[in-house]
Amino acid sequence: ETVQEETAGTTEGKRTVYYTTKYERSSKNREAAIRIHGTKCMICEFDFGQKYGELGKGYIEVHHIKPLATLDLICVCANCHRMLHRFKNYIVTVEELKYIVDDNK
């Protein structure tokens, strides 16, 4: 559960304090997923290295298909990762997002 405290004010840059539990992912599992799947997004095929050159080379995010339950990991770009986690109480499935991406090409 996340608890949020806000300070007074409505201007940009207001201070917000969050208290939450963070679950650390295994860097070895992340590295293995990248070794297996590569650094191209498995949903939209975006490649950070191709788009950003040396700055983006080797960058990709790793998504747990089944949250922390198994080692089912896929490599996705930051945009697709955010869309998978778009809703608080529902994780969009990889298949759903692939369909949406393909349908909107």
Description:
The chain is of the alpha+beta class and about 100 residues long. It is about 30% helix and about 15% strand. The protein contains four helices and four strands, in the order ββααββαα. Strands 1-2 form a two-stranded antiparallel sheet. The longest helix is centred in the N-terminal third of the chain and has 11 residues, at about 25-35. The mean pLDDT is about 85.
Distance between the termini: 37 Å
Question: What's the pLDDT, averaged over the residues?
Answer: 86
Q: Largest sheet at a glance?
A: 2 strands, antiparallel
Helix content: 25-40%
Characterize the overall form: globular
Total helical segments: 4
Let me know the number of strands.
4
* Strand line-up in the sheet with most strands: 1-2
Low-confidence stretches: none
Architecture blueprint of SSEs:
Layout: E1 3-6, E2 16-19, H1 27-37, H2 48-52, E3 61-64, E4 73-76, H3 78-84, H4 94-103
Antiparallel strand pairs: 1-2, 3-4
Tell me briefly what this model is.
By secondary structure, the protein is of the alpha+beta class. It has helices at about 25-35, 50, 80-85, 95-105; strands at about 5, 15-20, 60-65, 75.
